[in-house]
Amino acid sequence: MKPPAEPSAFNGLTVQRVVGDGMNFGGFQKTSLIDYPGNISCVLFLSGCNLVCPYCHNPELVRGDGPVPDYLNEAWVMDFLKTRIGLLDGIVITGGEPTLSRGIFSFSEKVKELGFKIKLDTNGTHPEVIRDLMEKRLIDYCAMDIKTDPMAYSSVFSRKPVADRIIKSIEVLMGSDVPYEFRTTCVKPLFDEEVLKAVLTRIQGARRYVLQQFHFTKLLNPSFFESGNCGFSDEEFQGFQAMASQHVRECMVR
Ligand code: SF4
Would you say the CB of residue 118 lies under 6 angstroms from ligand 1? Predict the structure, then answer.
């Protein structure tokens, strides 16, 4: 695989915002049937991210420059959830990167007190936060992205080496009894069979691995994909899925 071009072009892109209660609220979706497997949920988006994936579909959350409704804060979310008891199963906390918001612990405790399940979406760069959330039983499902071979993150996804953190998070998820999935977005030139092999060596025996299709919609860095032909065919996905299925307990294409 050719190394991606000009990672320095991403410098200065990420903007972190910290608000009073320690949660970087970035957006809210009242109902989702697809974000929490097997559950009806709402979705809370938190702003800010420490990675800069060129295919990111939430650039305004990464940059922290999107419009955030004035009313969106912890008290509003709790009041909303109280009106949805018995109607929603849970809440998805996603981003951006939610583990950057250290208020996630007290927030999750309050959500659990209301009886809702919590799914965390994470890029896996804060294994200690994921571990603590799991150990405190504050999340019920964790979806972790594995962008590429953990040893190759620094070339395009991150300005700092994160291999140790990604590998540690993989260990945390696989060592926990909290249900989880790993996810990889399959897009050229960032993914190919060699990348898949490298990822699979890290997640042997994993509970669930999801190969995600790339959609050329709103992107953090559309010029990265200027060749246009970035997706994979159904036949190629079938091949990836067949390969992965030999190494994990379940492999899905989504
Ligand atoms: S895809 Fe996720 S990890 Fe990557 S930049 Fe976007 S929010 Fe951050």
Answer: no
Distance from chain centroid for Cα 164: 18
Task: Indicate which atom in ligand 1 lies nearest the CA of residue 157.
Answer: 4
Its domain, for residue 136, covers 9-253
CA–centroid distance, 221 to ligand 1, in Å, is 12
> Which CATH number does the domain housing residue 153 bear?
3.20.20.70
Distance (Å) of CA 192 to CA 10, 81, 184, 199, 240:
23, 42, 11, 11, 9
pLDDT, tens digit, 9 for 90 and up, residues 192-213: 999 999 999 999 999 999 999 9
- Whether residue 234 lies inside any domain: the answer is yes
Closest atom of ligand 1 relative to the 185 alpha carbon: 1
**pTM for the predicted model, two decimal places:** 0.91
CA of 110 to the centre of ligand 1 (A): 26
